[in-house]
Design brief:
The complex is a heterodimer of chains A (157) and B (164). Chain A is 80% helix and 0% strand. Chain A is built from seven helices and no strands. In chain A, α6 packs antiparallel against α7. Chain A is elongated, with a radius of gyration of 18 Å. Chain B is mainly α and 164 residues long. The relative contact order of chain B is 0.14. Classes of the chains: A mainly alpha (157), B mainly alpha (164).
Amino acid sequence: MLTLFRWCSTWAPIVFIRDSRFGMPAVQSVHLTGLTVFLATMVILDLRLAGFGNRESSLSGLARQLKPWRTGGVTLVILSGLLIFLATPDKYLGSHPFQSKMALLCCAILFHFVVLRRFIASEPVSRPRRINVMVACLSLTLWFSVGWAGRAIAFIP
Amino acid sequence: MVPPATSLFDWCQWLQNTRLATTINESIWLFPLIEGSHILALPISVGMIVMFDLRLLGFATGSKVTNEFLRWSRFGFAVMLITGVFLFITQAGKAYGNPFFRTKLLFLLVLAINAAVYQLIFYPKTAQWDLAGKTPAGARFCAGLSLIIWIGVIVCGRTMAYEF
């Protein structure tokens, strides 16, 4: 696996991103822009699940409307993240915050598909509010933890 | 402590050497905390604006929900502004001559004017066009401009740190 990552890091487009003056900032900017859009849709969904915002329109309808931006945003984040990782794989594999970030990311994705998806498929009023609030809080905590772990890469070895 | 009344650059240098700035710079957790908050407030400030712009442009189909969440962005903006000011104080001297920092400030000025135009001209008549799906061309222009320039702000903000 490490051999594969190292081989990828010598691939011309990756080398270009790593060594050109604005390559890394450009890819990092895409990462942040994708994060902004993706997390905004998650915040809107989770707040609506927790009972905030306009309750006239259905939660499942809102989720459907936001879906292209949610998937579009997360795609940008993952693709740019992969490029950042492949530019210097050794640096990231040896970083404790990066390992935590990947573990938290797995938890967040798992939670999203196993729990949250069911909660946004039906209307929140059909369940006790504290359960909705708990699920919304967990979802936001997980996604923002991924972000904090990502930021910690720059500060903690 | 009184700042020297010589030039803007001297004032930035002075700011960077204040007790507050050195405290933040020397603390192992204050700077990461402030910088992390600045970045992770993006989805609840810029993210909400972007979703609103997309809705005005007709890319995220109309419902009043996104309108409501625009209110949440005020909290995000408070975090952005406060952490942003602190980040500037700690690196004022370095930020002063940074072309990306200057561009970012210019972009923010354009966004402020753009938002003011939208608020004064289009916002008061929202009820007439909003739910009917007849967004005026001018309002769409404001939304498109806002969308592009906010992304520009993110790009400048991220890139300026590479130029320090």
